[in-house]
């Protein structure tokens, strides 16, 4: 059985992951096409972040944001 002390962690962690995913998706959508190397990179990153969820957002921050 879970203790009540774990409840804030159980609530906060998923909310933080969802917020991270939404912020990353908005970053890709708002970023100008000139900041990507190829014209198709933006569409590719939108697909990766949207369907990859948290893992896709993490990969975008590692490889795509500053590329």
UniProtKB/TrEMBL annotation:
InterPro entries the UniProt entry points to: CLS_N
A Pfam family hit: PLDc_N
Membrane topology category: Multi-pass membrane protein
Alphabetically ordered keywords of this record: Cell membrane, Membrane, Transmembrane, Transmembrane helix
Residue ranges annotated for the Cardiolipin synthase N-terminal domain, each copy included: 19-64
Cellular location(s): Cell membrane
GO cellular component terms, semicolon-separated: plasma membrane
Annotated transmembrane regions: 7-23, 43-63
Protein name as catalogued: PLDc N-terminal domain-containing protein
